[in-house]
Specification:
It is a single chain. By secondary structure, the chain is α+β, with helices and mostly antiparallel strands. It has two domains: 44 residues, no CATH class; 250 residues, Endonuclease/exonuclease/phosphatase (Deoxyribonuclease I, Chain A, 4-Layer Sandwich). The chain has nine helices and twelve strands. It starts with 14 loop residues before the first helix and ends with a strand. This is Endonuclease/exonuclease/phosphatase family protein. Keywords: Endonuclease, Hydrolase, Membrane, Nuclease, Transmembrane, Transmembrane helix. One of its GO terms (molecular function) is endonuclease activity.
Length: 307
């Protein structure tokens, strides 16, 4: 405790001098008491918030939510939040996140337990992609040039897992209505994203690439079907990717398909992985239920991966 000298010399025994000295003495004693309290008061340290521990199995969903989940907007997205909580994905890749900026998507994601959000807004596009996650994700690149709706390239923190989400151009035309260059544009988009990710970082082996590709895979069809254009998906497969569903359930191209679920029309949504990732996959399939039947025109794709 800090000591304070309180010696007071009183020259007169008059009432004024005595009471003045007494007031000074009391004030000095009060200072001593306050200083003692300040010194002895304990310091409370607030611990740093800890990051959640990664799970043994990472659950991934990719979902085109139809123009910002417009069918649930009037309900404040309550059905969507309820559905996400039920599915409990660790990583959610979204397409058509219309109307959401970074802050608004963070608020929505917190409602279903995801505190980590990456958006990719483009001034020239109203159909952005996004990633939300229960676990920390690190943004590595936002791809916006020479692509329609862009792409996000991220990494799951404390792992080697690279995550890429994209959404390719949906129309038959490209720059001009009727030019029928949509397939050419989608092939360009595939190469832009591949050149910015897996082809650029060839030493990195763990990749998941997902989204709405607006393209079909030859492995979903019998070889006799020759009317489809497979350029974009062929380019992706040539870079080292395989569709997780085909890897786990076979495919129709070579007659090895073992899955009995049916796609409503042509399948254009995929979750691709590299060999090192797919060999740790435990489940892959589209999700069909009462919610997905109503709230989007795309079924979400799901993939479970052992970490």
């Amino acid at each position: 405790m800090e000591k304070v000298n309180t010696y007071i010399k009183i020259k007169s025994v008059g009432h004024t001098s005595f009471w003045g000295a007494l007031v000074v003495a009391i004030a000095m004693l009060s200072i001593v008491s306050c200083k003692e309290k300040e010194v002895s008061e304990p310091i409370i340290e607030v611990p740093e918030p800890t990051e959640p521990v990664l799970p043994d199995t990472l659950k991934i969903i990719s979902y085109n939510i139809l123009e910002g989940m417009k069918n649930d907007k009037a309900n404040n997205y309550n059905k969507f939040v309820e559905w996400i909580k039920l599915q409990a994905p660790d990583v959610l890749a979204l397409q058509e996140v219309n109307g959401f900026n970074q802050r608004e998507l963070e608020k929505l994601a917190k409602r279903y337990g995801h505190n980590y959000v990456i958006t990719n807004l483009k001034s020239t596009d109203n159909y952005p992609v996004a990633l939300t996650s229960k676990y920390p994700i690190e943004s590595r690149r936002r791809i916006t040039l020479h692509v329609s709706h862009g792409a996000i390239f991220a990494r799951l923190k404390n792992t080697d897992l690279n995550i890429v989400v994209t959404h390719f151009w949906p129309q038959a035309y490209w720059k001009t209505v009727g030019d029928n260059l949509g397939n050419d544009y989608r092939l360009q988009e595939a190469n832009v994203v591949l050149d910015s990710t897996i082809r650029k970082f060839t030493q990195e082996k763990d990749w998941v690439f997902m989204g709405d590709f607006n393209s079909v895979s030859r492995r979903d069809y019998d070889p006799a079907v020759t009317t489809n254009n497979y350029w974009a998906i062929d380019e992706i497969m040539g870079a080292g990717y395989v569709d997780a569903i085909h890897y786990l359930h076979g495919n129709k191209e070579d007659g090895s398909a073992k899955y009995d679920f049916q796609y409503p029309g042509r399948r254009i949504d995929f979750i691709f992985g590299t060999e090192s990732v797919l060999k740790r996959g435990t489940k892959a399939m589209p999700i069909y239920d009462e919610f997905t039947k109503v709230y989007s025109d795309h079924p979400p794709m799901m993939f479970h991966l052992l970490l």
